[in-house]
Amino acid sequence: MEFCDNYCHLNHTIYYTPENIPYDDPEGEQIFSDFITQIKRCMCKRDICDSNCTCVSAIESVEELARSPYSFDTSKSELILSTAYADQDLPIYECNSVCKCGTTCRSRLVQYGPRKSLKIHEYGSKGVGLFTEASIPQGGFVCEYAGEIVTKSEAAKRNRANEESDSMNYVICVNEHYGCNRIQTFVDPSKFGNIGRYLNHSCEPNCVMVPVRVDSPVPKLCLFADKDIEAGVELTFSYGSDTNITDNHNRKKCLCGSKSCSKWLPSSEYDS
C-alpha cells in the first residue's frame, strides 16, 4: 500500500501538497534546532510488532499499553487510534520506510493518506467546510493537516499580517510536552496545503489533532474522529484554547453554532 491522496482544491491558486513541505527561510532559522531525535528502525516481520520493537519501545510505559498505537476495529475493518494513546497524550511513532515489517503492519496508518469519503462543500457564512460522505468510527483517521512547516517567528509574522489584512489565519501551532521540554510545530496551509485546511473550528468538535511521526522528527498533524461520526456530517476540530484572554480586540467571531460556543475563535499565543 502506498501513499494515496487524490483530492484537490476548489481554488486553483492554492497549491495542493499532500504532505508537509519545509518553508524556505531566507534567514536560515532552524525549525527544530532544540529537538534532536533518531528515527527508529524495527526488525519485526509480523503484522503486529513485537513487544521489544524499537518503534514501540520509544514509549516508556509500553508494558501498560497495546503493542501498537492503533487497534483493529473488526466491525469497521479498519485501524483506529487506541484509547490509551488518545487519552494519555503519548507520542506516536509509526513504523517507517526503513522498518522490516510489511505494509500490513498495524503500526502503519496515517502514512497511507486520508480517508476516501471526504468532500468539500461551500455553504453559508463559513464559506467552505469539510464533510464526510460515509460514517467514521471513533478513533478513525480522517486526514493530515498539511502545509508549510514554518518557524515560530515566521508563524508570528504571518499571523500579524493576517490580522492587519483581516484575512483568515490558517497557521496551526501544536505544543508537545516531554517532561520539562516543549516542542512546537507550526503548519501554514494557506498557500500550500491539503484537504485538511477545510476543517472549520468548533467549540464542540468531532475530531482531535494528534502529532504522529513517521520518517521525520517533524510530526504529521493528524486528525482523528473524537466520536462516532455519521455520514453527511461536517468535520471540525478545536483551533486551540485561550480562555485566559479577555481582550477581544482584532479577534474573529466564532460561527460554529454549538451550544457551548465561546463566541470568539481561539487566538494563538505562540510564547505561552
Task: Outline the fold blueprint.
Blueprint: E1 15-16, E2 21-22, E3 70-73, E4 78-81, H1 83-88, E5 92-93, E6 118-123, E7 127-132, E8 141-144, E9 148-150, H2 152-164, E10 172-178, E11 181-188, E12 192-193, E13 200-201, E14 207-213, E15 220-225, E16 234-237
Parallel strand pairs: 1-12, 2-9, 5-14, 13-16
Antiparallel strand pairs: 3-4, 6-7, 7-16, 8-15, 9-11, 10-11, 14-15
What does this structure look like?
The chain is mainly beta and 272 residues long. It is built from 2 helices and 16 strands. It has a 4-stranded mixed beta sheet with strand order 2-9-11-10. It has a 4-stranded mixed beta sheet with strand order 5-14-15-8, with no helix packed on it. It has a 4-stranded mixed beta sheet with strand order 6-7-16-13, with no helix packed on it. A hairpin with a 6-residue loop joins strand 14 and strand 15 (220-225). The longest helix is centred in the middle third of the chain and has 13 residues, at 152-164. 32% of the residues are buried. Mean pLDDT is 82; it is low at 59-67.
For the biggest β-sheet, the strand order reads 2-9-11-10
| Structural class determined from secondary elements | mainly beta
- In helices, the fraction of residues equals under 10%
Q: Strand share of the residues?
A: 25-35%
Sketch the topology as an H/E string, one letter per element: EEEEHEEEEEHEEEEEEE
Major sheet: 4 strands, mixed
Shape: globular
Task: State the oligomer.
Answer: single chain
- Give the uncertain stretches in residue-range form: 59-67
Note the total helix count. Answer: 2
Query: Termini separation (Å)?
Result: 40 Å
- Compute the CA-based radius of gyration: 19 Å
